[in-house]
Amino acid sequence: MTIDPPYLQLLRLLRNEGAISRAELADRLQLPRPRLLAEVERLVAQGYVVEAGMAASRGGRRSTLVELHPRLRFAAVDLGASSIDVEVTNGRLEPVAAYTEEADIRSGPKATLHRVNELLAKARVDGAYERLDAIGIGVPGPVSFRDGVPVSPPIMPGWDRFGVRELLTREHGCPAVVDNDVNIMAVGEQHGGVAHSVQDFLFVKVGTGIGCGIYLNDEVYRGTDGCAGDIGHIQVDPNGPMCSCGNVGCLEALFSGTALAREALVAARSGASQALADRLAASGSLSARDVAEGATEGDVACIKLIREGGHRIGSVLASLVSFVNPSMIVIGGGLAQLGHILLAEIRSAVYRRSLPLATGNLPIVLSELGSRAGVTGAAVLASDVAFEQAS
């Protein structure tokens, strides 16, 4: 675990907790008062913080409150396989503008990022910001965090080695940071969700694809090349269907949004599920949502599909639990809508197959932030890269 320099600790404290007195900052950062005052004065001069009146008396002379400059603005972007989520936040990471729309990541980086830039331009016209201090963006594929580029993403044709960070930095005149979508979801959940007080946990995104954000020692573990946590391409059935990565029997090929829609179609056409057959006749297609609704209505085939998927995910997670020994597992992503049937099956597989010592105090829970986990994490990373400029 790295130890942040005092100015970075100070800015993060103000981001996470709001206005704090100079005296309390000196105590919490364990800095001599003259050093703390010098740090604050430097950050005021750089436009990161402002004085915010007097703090309540602690028995002596009242200290001055310090808070982040109200002008600070960060852009947070979460790109999914079929959606774009954009938020502009203030320094406390509170949204001041938000946009969500359907999109196809397969349309390529130029078209997708052009739309992101249009949404950010709309936010500017609407008065959300005068200038951005940093941008954070998550994409649904492996990322070289160091270089700010996607690397051979299976479901993102045309994105390989595309300079996402470079384009956004050039377009908006501010630093940018690019990460895998599940990593930013893990960061978001730790910042403002159910994992807020946890230093070691796994965030499992179950959606169009499956990925795992690994949060260890209070920071994301990305691996040497940025592809740690890509559990969707662990083989679980050597005789299984072909995966988008080119291999067969991957977890993602057997249970994901795409796989569930495929299996739902089979169940509807074979007569195994009347509920799915009725939905197929009404709309001409099926999705994971149809399976979720069918399960809620008690359809046996829908419940079975969800349980089989939960068992497969749980079997993979059981190995990770024995290996990593996390203090929590958080389940998020679009298929988290499958709810407690999915969660119960994942729990059952993990608790049954992992080492008892690793699961004795292991909560497995649904994401508290839901669809906002990604943009929240992207905003955290954007603020971090902006604050690092204060060195």
Automatic annotation (TrEMBL):
Q: Where is the HTH marR-type domain?
A: 4-51
Q: Which Pfam family is one of this chain's hits? A: MarR_2
Family the UniProt entry places it in: Belongs to the ROK (NagC/XylR) family.
Q: What is the protein's given name?
A: ROK family protein
Top-level taxon: Bacteria
- Which SUPFAM superfamilies is this protein grouped with? Actin-like ATPase domain, Winged helix' DNA-binding domain
Gene3D superfamilies from the UniProt entry: 3.30.420.40, Winged helix-like DNA-binding domain superfamily/Winged helix DNA-binding domain
The record ties this protein, via InterPro entries, to: ATPase_NBD, HTH_MarR-typ, ROK, ROK_cs, WH-like_DNA-bd_sf, WH_DNA-bd_sf
